[in-house]
Amino acid sequence: MVSESNLLHLPAAFLATAVTAVLVWFGTGLHPLWPLLWVAPLPVLLVAFRSSAWRTTAVAFAAWFIGTLNLWHYVRVVMKDPLPTVLFILAGMALVFTLAVLLFRALVRRGAYWTGLLAFPAVWVSFEYLLSITSPSGTSDNLAYTQLKFLPFLQLASLTGPWGMSFLLLLFPAAVTLGLHLRREAPRRARAVVSVTFGVLALALLFGAIRLALPVRAGTVRVGLVATDHIMANTREAAQALPRLQAFAAQVHALAARGAQVVVIQEKSVGVVDSYQQQAYSILAHAAAANHVTLVAGLNLIQDSDRKRNAALVFSPSGTLLRRYTKHHLIPGMEAHYVVGRHIAVWPGPSSLWGVAICKDMDFPALSRRYGRAGVGLMLVPAWDFVVDAGFHGHMALMRGVESGFSVARSAADGYLTVSDTRGRILAQVRSNSAPFATLVANVPTAHVATLYLLLGNWFAWLVLALLLFSLAQLARFRKKPLA
Description:
single chain, alpha/beta, Nitrilase/N-carbamoyl-D-aminoacid amidohydrolase, 2 domains, 7-stranded mixed sheet
């Protein structure tokens, strides 16, 4: 039979599940409201100390799983992921959150308060880091991306990468929960936990505010971006492809007339086969030379063997082909038959080194660090989003600029044309559907900025992994205490 005390706790369990699910739903996903995620775990964590392990498991899993169903349409319909894959992803994230809650609960009940406090974010961040180096989706599931509009907090990425942001984001609700839990039996410890956590967060925000206020070193270039949502990526006929490239060439001329010194054309702007490849290259080379601009053009190179390359060609102001870059990180399924790129592409611009990457490449901090270590001050990125993820995926590149010290000029079909600086500030932006050929011209800082993350890489993620192992070891050391 169900005891009376258990029945009394059921409404609290259902309420905690519902409130956390709603906060996760609106605090994550394609259009996250960034303040909500700071408190989203609170209801579940508060209930955990008054519930059995089994009930805590059910509440935590259900709350996170329901909350992340906000991504169902995106991953199932837009990205066309198979149903088992979608369920595996959503259930996997819910399981990790549940394990984090259970470890926090177990350690706190054993009196290992500080270890429990740190263990809760450590479980999640360890999962995020391991996923980022094993999954073709890279860092796309990181909670840190929900905070892109919180600019003072975003600056923490220059020290720790996204891992420090996710850690503090989850440390906050754990500290509040622990403070409330200890306020009667150990008020001094409760104050210490809350004070230290809030102090660390205050220091992170102070660092961010100072970094935002510091002037960026001189050196700018006028960048022009062009994209259209009328895609012809699989074109195989010269009669379609070449006029299309001529239309882009006309946009290059118009952007140069507005002062653009470098122009970026979207990813896979047109399909090009071997039979008319030289003609296509000639059109782009002439557009660069005639307008005295550096031209970066995203093309779908379709060889006769059907081995495709998602490429970006870089032409100098004299019309010389400077670089041919092949996309490194391909979309599973959609780009299964594409050649994987292995090399970065860097060349000297007027006031710094410039680099090129393509769309999904900017989801991976490791690739961006290669550019940062080379001293790149400006990344030029042809891209192609999926309309609904224009802000979610399109703005992930902002964090790479903060981490590795470069500005980003990203021209995306079915998304945004965006220019951002080394602080993650959006300097200019326009939707790609704003005109048959959407364009944007903006002055962009090009000075490279050194960062701690660039120097030390994923040091914080490794520290968190060690902390998680220590937390697990503490479970055996501390005796279980009765519920407070």
